[in-house]
From TrEMBL:
Residues in Serine/threonine-protein phosphatase 4 regulatory subunit 3-like central domain copies: 143-633
GO molecular function: protein phosphatase activator activity
Compositional bias (Polar residues): 721-756
PANTHER family cross-referenced by the UniProt entry: ATP SYNTHASE GAMMA-RELATED (PTHR23318), SERINE_THREONINE-PROTEIN PHOSPHATASE 4 REGULATORY SUBUNIT 3A (PTHR23318:SF3)
Ranges annotated as biased composition (Acidic residues): 785-802
InterPro entries from the UniProt entry: ARM-like, ARM-type_fold, EVH1_PP4R3, P4R3-like_central_dom, PH-like_dom_sf, PP4R3-like
Taxonomic superkingdom: Eukaryota
GO term, biological process aspect, one: DNA damage response
Start and end residues of each stretch annotated as Disordered: 674-695, 717-758, 783-817
GO cellular component, one term: protein phosphatase 4 complex
Name by which UniProt lists this protein: Serine/threonine-protein phosphatase 4 regulatory subunit 3
């Protein structure tokens, strides 16, 4: 079989019953050895990759729709469609399919869908066709019963559809409808309602094309007005002919396009308003109706997009100053609906659609429209702008950066958006929330492109902070000139909360741009004025902004905070809140707890030195006492530099010895008989014996003398600890500079283990102290056992806690290792 190449689009039906575009390519039919049969092949026109390889199964039902569509199912939930550019190509592939299945190419469906049992199939095969009763008034009840009985069976449904189609039954039924309506025959009208509703559920394109033709569609809608469950008929036709008006804001010269628009509107109305809500069992029966509307919209967008004169006139009138307000409102509404239709397009088509609008000058036109006073026009323009931003934010960024070279800051498109956000008259700020989301999308580095020369992120952020940031922050700066917000009403607070949310996003995602802006403009001090607001949500927004800054652990920010004493308004808000357990209380405590846990040394010292007196009485959490403890530990390190150097020496000997030396020392340890050791003698490796004991002991002895004076104070803060055989009862302070310390709970086995990788400083210090002070239980500086041995040791310690006193000192030392 010879290959024939035709241009097609491949569609698949997703779970939401919407068609997804899988790509554009050329279709051919050929014998595929792997599939053992003739197959449809579609290769992408861009790179020649295989988009579709589908064997023409002799039992698969293929449908031909609208002269350019072929639809079929592969498996229960996998529907496919080929949309041809030309009718000739569709006919040629359809002939190939019919040739393989042995069917006449004049049919629109090649197979009957058979799902029944063998008994039902045998019964249906005994009657080759379905005979319809004569289309007469006195037989309408019989016909309604026949339709209702055929719907549950797919095979009978298919036979009924073929009979209705071949006998031209729909037009005869509509003639009866006009007679019944003239005679006010309610019983006949109710039967016709059931019949027409059943024909919709037959889900057949050929029937839809007859029902939705210009001469039939209004009568079909009329039949669906007489629902037997309603006392009075509905007035759908009256609405469509008198209330709904078709406005040509720009004259449409193509009659086919105009007819397609009318048809799509009416069919959409039937689906949304006329047909009753389908049950779970009926929902899949209307899939062809969904497809009919979908492909109609695709055709309308394509035909409008190809009509350059139409789009040129549209944008010319939009930007013309002489256009009156009513006309401009209609033009903007049309453009908004046009963009809404484009959402049914697949990514490739949508990309071409927005590229066409961009070439026509949609962004300059929107800039003109957004500068107008009409609220409805501006609202429609905002919706159009949102379509553009959501689909292609880079296109919008490129436009605003180019126009900044020609226009003043006041009339830039992005500044117009910010001004509309600030001046939103809606008490709930619905429009402002939408615009804030668009600005956030434009400022998000995640969707910015990078080129070989320069990144879009650098260019756009430099532009934004130079030309637009002052407009965004103006309400914030104007409202925070004093110690309290100058305006504290609900709407102003909502607006400031939106601005703070956007600034917080910038802190998280931008680097030096926002840092320079905050420090140079003293933004954080202004933001913290809002902690005095009567609206808790605004005060929490201000705290969240500061918390994000502290979370960066950037010393530039930290020095800025300390230099300007910016914890002062936070402490004031905390004290003003009192002991109330609310969000404000929790947010402030969490901020201080973060500083303590992460050991931000500069901020810890600043807080204790400046605000300790105000916070020392807070005892329902241990956060502030823990900060004071951190501060004292830092001071001890600063006063005893030898302590740090000694810890460094121990750390080096613990982790950096030569591997062979390590093995030798371990061997020596395990080969040493404990009976050979004198009581109280520490087993110390030769490498450590070389160190002068005086150099090591002098700073430790001085340190312990000072700590004995503070034991009483520390006991209140730290609480009692559960001690093991390796811990001295009098040693309570942790020297870890990088690990989290729980001041109220006893130390875990991990914190007591000198081999723990997270806390080498603390372990070596505890070890050194034991070497000096525990004359009856000295520990050698050796490598410690692996984790498995440590776990066994902890179990032995727990089981034999009461027996430790009986263990000889040297034995104790070995157990500790």
């Amino acid at each position: 079989m010879t290959d024939t190449r035709r241009r097609v689009k491949v569609y698949t039906l997703n779970e939401d019953r919407q068609w997804d575009d899988r790509g554009t390519g050329h279709v051919s039919s050929a014998y595929v050895e792997r599939l053992k049969g003739t197959s449809l092949l579609v290769r992408a026109e861009s790179d020649g990759s295989l988009l579709l390889e589908s064997k023409i199964n002799p039992n698969t039902a293929y449908q031909k729709q609208q002269d350019t569509l072929i639809v079929w199912s592969e498996g229960e939930n996998y529907d496919l469609a080929l949309s041809f550019q030309e009718k000739a190509g569709c006919d040629e592939i359809w002939e190939k399919i019919c040739q393989v299945q042995g069917k006449d190419p004049s049919v629109d469906i090649t197979q009957d869908v058979v799902d029944e049992s063998e008994e039902e199939r045998f019964d249906d095969m005994s009657s080759p066709g379905l005979e319809l009763p004569p289309c007469e008034l006195n037989r309408l009840e019989d016909l309604a019963e026949l339709v209702a009985s055929s719907l549950p069976s797919p095979l009978r449904r298919e036979k009924l559809a073929l009979a209705v189609e071949n006998e031209g039954y729909i037009r005869k039924l509509l003639e009866l409808f006009r007679i019944c309506e003239d005679l006010d025959n309610r019983e006949g009208l109710h039967h016709l309602y059931e019949i027409i509703k059943g024909i919709f559920l037959l889900n057949r394109t050929a029937l839809f094309e007859v029902m939705f033709s210009d001469e039939c569609i209004m009568d079909v809608i009329g039949c669906l007005e007489f629902d037997p469950s309603l006392l009075q008929p509905r007035r759908h036709r009256e609405f469509l002919t008198k209330t709904a008006r078709f406005k040509e804001v720009i004259p449409i010269s193509d009659p086919e396009l105009r007819q397609k628009i009318h048809q799509t509107y009416r069919v959409q109305y039937i689906q949304d308003m006329v047909l009753p809500t389908p049950s779970v069992f009926e929902e899949n029966m209307l899939s062809t109706l969904h497809s009919f509307i979908f492909f109609n919209k695709v055709e309308i967008v394509g035909m409008l997009q190809d009509d350059e004169k139409f789009l040129t006139d549209l944008f010319a009138q939009l930007t013309d100053e002489s256009t009156d307000d009513d006309k401009r409102h209609e033009l903007v509404s049309f453009l908004k609906e046009f963009c809404a239709f484009s959402q049914t397009l697949q990514p490739q088509n949508r990309d071409a659609f927005f590229k066409t609008l961009s070439n026509m000058g949609i962004l300059p036109a929107l800039e003109v429209i957004l500068g107008m006073d009409d609220v409805q026009v501006r609202g429609a323009a905002t919706d159009i702008f949102s379509y553009l931003v959501e689909y292609n934010p880079s296109m919008v960024r490129e436009f605003v950066m180019q126009e900044s070279q020609q226009n003043d800051d006041d009339i830039l498109l992005i500044n117009l958006i910010i001004e509309h956000m600030i001046c939103d008259s809606d008490p709930e700020l619905g429009g402002a929330v939408q615009l804030m989301g668009l600005l956030r999308t434009l400022l998000d580095p995640e969707n910015m492109l990078a080129t070989a020369n320069k990144t879009e992120k650098t260019e756009f952020l430099s532009f934004f902070y130079k030309h637009c940031m002052h407009v965004l922050s103006a309400p914030l700066l104007a409202n925070t000139t004093e110690e309290k917000p100058s305006k504290d009403d609900f709407q102003t607070s909502q607006l400031l909360a939106l601005i703070l949310e956007l600034l917080t996003f910038c802190v998280e995602h931008h680097t030096y741009h926002i840092k320079n802006y905050i420090i140079n403009k003293d933004i954080l001090r202004r933001v913290l004025v809002l902690t005095a607001s009567q609206h808790a949500f605004l005060a929490l927004c201000a705290l969240r902004f500061m918390r994000r800054i502290i979370g960066l652990k950037d010393e530039f920010y930290n020095r800025y905070i300390m230099r300007n004493f910016l914890f002062e308004p936070v402490v004031k808000a905390f004290l003003k809140n009192g002991s109330r357990y609310n969000l404000m209380n929790s947010a402030i405590i969490e901020m201080f707890e973060y500083v303590r846990v992460e050991d931000v040394k500069s901020l810890t010292a600043h807080i204790v030195e400046n605000y300790w007196k105000a916070l020392e009485d807070v005892d329902y959490v241990q956060t502030f006492k823990g900060l004071k403890l951190r501060y004292e530990q830092q001071r001890e390190r600063q006063d005893n530099p030898k302590l740090d150097s000694m810890r460094s020496i121990l750390r080096n000997h613990r982790f950096r010895r030569d591997a062979r030396t390590l093995e030798d020392e371990e061997e020596m340890w395990f080969n040493t008989d404990e009976d050979d050791l004198e009581d109280g003698e520490a087993v110390v490796p030769p490498s450590d014996k070389m160190k002068s004991e005086e150099d090591l002991m002098e700073p430790i002895s001085k340190f312990m003398e000072r700590k004995k004076l503070k034991d009483t104070e520390d006991k209140d803060v730290l609480g009692k600890s559960t001690l093991t055989g390796r811990q001295s009862p009098s040693f309570k302070l942790s020297f870890s500079g990088s690990t989290k310390t729980n001041i109220s709970s006893p130390p875990s086995s991990a914190s007591l283990n000198p081999g723990s990788p997270g806390s080498p400083d603390k372990c070596n210090l505890c070890l050194c102290y034991q070497t000096v002070c525990e004359m009856q239980g000295l520990v050698g500086l050796v490598d410690y056992p692996v984790d498995d041995e440590e776990e066994e040791e902890e179990e032995e310690e727990e089981d034999g806690e009461n027996k430790e006193d009986a263990v000889p000192p040297t034995k104790k030392s070995k157990l500790s290792s």
